[in-house]
């Protein structure tokens, strides 16, 4: 899979994509992540990519540099007539988008290439959405300074699901939000810390009873904290 990110703050991504699971996934050749500076595609002498909103308001990303960036990445014109390509998806991180969850992120595994736009300020010219963007994604009902952090969340959430990235497949299947349940409690050494003890069933070696206990706890926690998932 190839993931391209278009941003005006490319340096923000280095600490995330060059560490831990995402770094290992790239080293294995399972994913390639390209960070593009939107200013490189501006025809303006000062490399500006935004302009004031018509009618008053904040700064808005202009269509010209965004279309130039997308066409450079895709190697073909996407406006006014776009090539239909089921292997690629152009995504805008936006508070107005579909809320990201485990079910939503999994569908992006079906694409060979994802192009993610991380906007700033008052987002993008609406025509960008009409002619260039194929999907809008939000990571929650709150406002951030820009789309960089949401893009990092999206990438981390997606990359770890790519087959071969996480060595233990079973650990992914049992995580929170899989099967609409929150994860069960986990314990490790020591067995007894100042009187706080690990549940005996986890030390029993009886895998059937352990699975039953974990299932029960998952249901209890989900019912208490996120009953909406059980609906």
Task: Describe this entry's structure for a reader.
The protein is of the alpha/beta class. It has 2 domains: 2-159, SPOUT methyltransferase, trefoil knot domain (Alpha/beta knot), CATH 3.40.1280; 174-230, Trp Operon Repressor, Chain A. The protein contains 9 helices and 9 strands. The chain has helices at residues 14-17, 20-27, 63-74, 102-107, 126-131, 148-159, 169-173, 207-225, 227-230, and strands spanning 2-7, 32-37, 50-52, 59-61, 88-99, 113-117, 135-138, 192-193, 196-197. Strands 2-1-6-5-7 form a 5-stranded parallel sheet. The protein has a two-stranded antiparallel ribbon with strand order 3-4. A two-stranded antiparallel sheet has the order 8-9. It is elongated and about 70 Å long.
Chart the SSEs and their pairings.
Blueprint: E1 2-7, H1 14-17, H2 20-27, E2 32-37, E3 50-52, E4 59-61, H3 63-74, E5 88-99, H4 102-107, E6 113-117, H5 126-131, E7 135-138, H6 148-159, H7 169-173, E8 192-193, E9 196-197, H8 207-225, H9 227-230
Parallel strand pairs: 1-2, 1-6, 5-6, 5-7
Antiparallel strand pairs: 3-4, 8-9
């Amino acid at each position: 899979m190839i993931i391209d990110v278009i941003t005006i703050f490319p340096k923000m991504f280095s600490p995330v994509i060059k560490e831990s699971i995402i770094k290992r996934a790239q080293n294995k050749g399972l994913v390639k992540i390209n960070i593009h500076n939107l200013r490189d595609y501006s025809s303006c002498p000062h490399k500006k990519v935004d302009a004031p909103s018509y009618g008053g308001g904040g700064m808005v990303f202009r269509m010209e540099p965004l279309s130039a960036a997308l066409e450079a990445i895709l190697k073909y014109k996407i406006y006014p007539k776009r090539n239909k390509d089921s292997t690629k998806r152009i995504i805008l991180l936006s508070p107005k988008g579909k809320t990201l969850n485990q079910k939503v992120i999994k569908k992006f595994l079906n694409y060979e290439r994802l192009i993610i736009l991380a906007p700033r300020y008052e987002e993008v010219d609406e025509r960008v959405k009409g002619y260039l963007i194929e999907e809008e994604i939000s990571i929650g009902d709150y406002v951030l300074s820009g789309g960089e952090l949401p893009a990092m969340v999206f990438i981390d959430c997606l990359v770890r699901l790519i087959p071969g990235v996480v060595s233990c497949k079973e650990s992914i299947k049992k995580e929170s939000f899989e099967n609409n349940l929150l994860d069960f409690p986990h314990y490790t050494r020591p067995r007894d810390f100042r009187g706080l003890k690990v549940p005996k069933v986890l030390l029993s070696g009886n895998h059937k009873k352990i699975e039953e206990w974990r299932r029960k706890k998952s249901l209890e926690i989900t019912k208490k904290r996120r009953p909406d998932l059980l609906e």
